[in-house]
């Protein structure tokens, strides 16, 4: 009783002290709220300035990225072999021009930021354009709708190369349906700065201000209505919520303060359009632009005023809460102490109930070889934790591995997966304990180990268990837990000191699930025998595989690949590891060679090929990244082959069109000029045109002869010679065979038809 009374007095005294302490805190908070108001106002301004600087820095970074990307595009276009024909040649082949224009369109389509691309050739005074706004792509400078671009290239030395030039593209001359008169953009010029000539070839990349403005707006954490960018002349270089691009803001007083400060960054409070505001500015990049943000002063300080009210409210709440708490303490503190004592008793009970976790740790450490494995030490611990195993008797270890575990991870949480493994352990122990003592342990991830205590060693099947019992465990797990497990059974050990070795043995045996498949049963003794076999990597098959891959014969390459890997099933797991590693590096080198020889570019990560060594559950999973690479190689080679064929056929046609009048023109001379086999080009031309090269030569010559007969008074012998025929008799014979009439009759009939047409008209 004395102790209880003493406790009650202590409770009342503690409550009194708590009330006084609470009152003191509340009064102190109220007094400090007024003192700190001015202090927090200054801090708020600095925090707003710091936050705004970060936002403006992000905006500057986006602008710099725009400049870097535009510069990269311009350089890439400048160095493009196809585009260079537009840039430097005074007269180009239509096929080259078409190819180059397609390349320009491809460059423009790679980014939403690019509005248009111009290539200016000063020798021909011609603009080659890629722009969505106009269907015409070739313009003489005196006809070009973008007159400002014409003036820029005429005085290109006045502009810095690869620096953004804010401007408006005029569209009035195009008379567009959408009534768009002009478009805002940033123009980047790239030209030869080493040349001292006034006239230069120029690459022009126009970046859309609309797309750039959207991207910059997205970098501002709050409203962007008061954020804009000016150049060193106080001219807007992007549209703002009040003014259009290229508006002169020098008449604004706060702009004059920014320009006259001489600092790269800073802030000040000023009147902006009749509103007291915080003006923050910075010039962080090499573009020479200033990034300005305006925030109303009332918005910044509103939080401080609210904070003052909240402080007073909090002080009152603390006072009331303290008084209420002191009352409750004096009434219920004793009961709380008693409840805590009850909880401590409950915790002690729960700690005893957690012995299962301690048992799991003991056996897990034994399996991993991290704890004491001496039978005498373990005997006392097994008795303490009520584990029905005898350390001095024979042991066997069985490892269960959950199949398709990655799908299980995606489907269930960590807690749910733990419950599933507990269910598997309960099923296994219930079936095994009828034959011999066992203990199941969760080994993490997808593995469960079962320690078996057997009376005497058995040759293969663990502890004299029938093979049907292992299949019964697999069947029960599949039916009740809805998952499948693969099982590996170790050999037999003399006592507990062999447990760690047996666990390693069973775990290594499970690597062969790659070849056995899901829900397999593997005996470690059989796998151990494979380690004695010496594996020799089939380098000759690898060479055949690489040859087939280089030739694009993917079906045969895949077959040989499977054959090499499947041969390792009869050897140790390290043989499989060695073979796949060899194949990964061989395939990687072969693909690199194919890319280099065929001018093909796509990334190949060798780590993706080697991922099957650790991630694949079945050998088919390991095949997948390799076969994907094979298919990609095949597709790339086929595309490259078709492109080369088109180029060869186009060149044959061009040679015939240019040299049809030479009598020595033939399949052999064309092949010699192209440096290719006559048989090859003949077969390729017929495949793509359904016509032979000789027939095509005759067709071109005959078309020329018909034109000369119809439009000139030349003798037929001269026409035959100019058309490339070796002699007049052959020309007469060939002409009549193809046209059904002699050359003279063809000329006569053509003139009669012309006279009839004149009479009708």
UniProtKB/TrEMBL annotation:
Transmembrane segments annotated in the record for this chain: 21-40, 309-330
Entries under SMART domains matching the protein: HTH_ARAC
Alphabetized Pfam families for the sequence: GGDEF_2, HTH_18
Domain HTH araC/xylS-type: 650-749
Name of the protein: Helix-turn-helix domain-containing protein
Record PROSITE patterns: HTH_ARAC_FAMILY_1, HTH_ARAC_FAMILY_2
UniProt keyword annotations, A-Z: DNA-binding, Membrane, Transcription, Transcription regulation, Transmembrane, Transmembrane helix
InterPro entries: CdaR_GGDEF, Homeodomain-like_sf, HTH_AraC, HTH_AraC-typ_CS, Tscrpt_reg_AraC-type_HTH
């Amino acid at each position: 009783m004395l102790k209880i009374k003493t406790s009650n007095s202590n409770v009342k005294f503690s409550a009194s002290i708590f009330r006084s302490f609470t009152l003191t805190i509340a009064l102190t908070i109220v007094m400090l709220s007024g003192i700190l108001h001015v202090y927090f106002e200054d801090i708020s301004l600095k925090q707003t300035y710091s936050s705004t600087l970060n936002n403006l820095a992000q905006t500057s970074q986006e602008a710099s990225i725009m400049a870097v990307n535009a510069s990269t595009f311009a350089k890439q276009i400048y160095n493009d072999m196809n585009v260079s024909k537009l840039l430097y040649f005074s007269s180009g082949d239509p096929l080259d021009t078409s190819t180059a224009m397609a390349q320009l369109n491809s460059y423009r389509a790679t980014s939403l930021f690019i509005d248009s691309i111009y290539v200016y050739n000063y020798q021909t005074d011609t603009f080659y354009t890629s722009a969505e706004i106009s269907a015409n792509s070739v313009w003489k400078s005196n006809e070009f709708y973008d007159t400002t671009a014409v003036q820029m290239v005429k005085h290109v030395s006045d502009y810095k190369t690869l620096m953004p030039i804010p401007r408006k593209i005029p569209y009035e001359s195009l008379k567009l349906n959408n009534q768009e008169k002009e478009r805002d953009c940033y123009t980047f010029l790239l030209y030869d700065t080493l040349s001292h000539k006034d006239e230069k070839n120029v690459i022009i990349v126009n970046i859309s201000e609309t797309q750039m403005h959207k991207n910059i707006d997205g970098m501002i954490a709050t409203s962007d209505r008061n954020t804009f960018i000016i150049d060193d002349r106080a001219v807007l270089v992007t549209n703002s919520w009040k003014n259009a691009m290229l508006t002169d803001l020098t008449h604004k007083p706060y702009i004059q303060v920014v320009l006259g400060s001489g600092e790269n960054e800073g802030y000040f409070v000023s009147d902006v359009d009749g509103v007291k505001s915080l003006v923050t500015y910075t010039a962080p990049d090499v573009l020479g632009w200033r990034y300005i943000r305006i925030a109303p002063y009332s918005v910044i300080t509103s939080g401080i005023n609210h904070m003052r009210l909240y402080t007073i409210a909090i002080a009152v709440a603390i006072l009331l809460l303290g008084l209420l708490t002191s009352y409750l303490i004096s009434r219920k503190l004793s009961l709380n102490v008693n409840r805590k004592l009850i909880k401590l008793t409950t915790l002690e009970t729960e700690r005893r109930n957690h012995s299962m976790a301690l048992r799991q740790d003991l056996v897990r450490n034994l399996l991993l070889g991290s704890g004491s494995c001496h039978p005498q030490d373990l005997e006392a611990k097994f008795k303490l934790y009520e584990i029905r195993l005898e350390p001095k008797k024979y042991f066997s270890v069985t490892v269960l591995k959950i199949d398709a575990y990655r799908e299980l991870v995606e489907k269930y949480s960590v807690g749910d997966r733990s419950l599933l493994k507990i269910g598997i352990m309960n099923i296994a122990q219930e079936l095994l304990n009828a034959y011999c003592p066992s203990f199941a342990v969760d080994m993490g991830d997808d593995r469960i180990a079962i320690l078996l205590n057997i009376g005497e060693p058995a040759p293969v099947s663990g502890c004299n268990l029938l093979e049907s019992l292992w299949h019964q465990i697999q069947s029960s797990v599949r039916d009740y837990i809805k998952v499948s497990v693969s099982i590996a059974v170790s050999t037999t050990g003399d006592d507990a000191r062999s447990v760690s070795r047996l666990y390693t043995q069973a775990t290594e045996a499970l690597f062969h699930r790659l070849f056995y498949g899901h829900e397999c049963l593997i005996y470690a003794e059989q796998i151990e025998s494979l380690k004695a076999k010496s594996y020799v990597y089939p380098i000759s098959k690898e060479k055949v595989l690489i040859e087939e891959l280089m030739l694009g014969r993917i079906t045969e390459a895949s077959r040989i690949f499977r054959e090499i890997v499947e041969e390792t099933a009869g050897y140790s797991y390290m043989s499989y590891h060695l073979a796949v590693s060899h194949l990964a590096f061989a395939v990687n080198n072969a693909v690199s060679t194919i890319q280099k020889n065929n001018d093909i570019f796509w990334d190949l990560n060798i780590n993706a090929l080697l991922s099957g060594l650790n991630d694949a559950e079945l050998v088919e999973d390991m095949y997948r990244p390799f076969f994907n690479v094979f298919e990609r190689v095949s597709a790339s080679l086929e595309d490259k082959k078709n492109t080369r064929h088109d180029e060869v056929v186009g060149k044959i046609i061009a040679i015939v069109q240019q040299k049809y009048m030479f009598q020595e023109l033939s399949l052999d001379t064309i092949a010699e000029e192209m440096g290719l086999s006559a048989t090859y080009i003949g077969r390729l031309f017929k495949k793509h045109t359904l016509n032979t090269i000789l027939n095509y030569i005759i067709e071109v010559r005959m078309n020329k002869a018909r034109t000369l007969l119809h439009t000139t008074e030349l003798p037929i012998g001269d026409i035959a010679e100019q058309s490339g025929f070796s002699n007049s008799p052959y020309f007469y014979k060939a002409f009549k065979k193809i046209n059904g009439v002699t050359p003279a009759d063809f000329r006569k009939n053509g003139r009669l038809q012309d006279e009839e047409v004149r009479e009708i008209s």
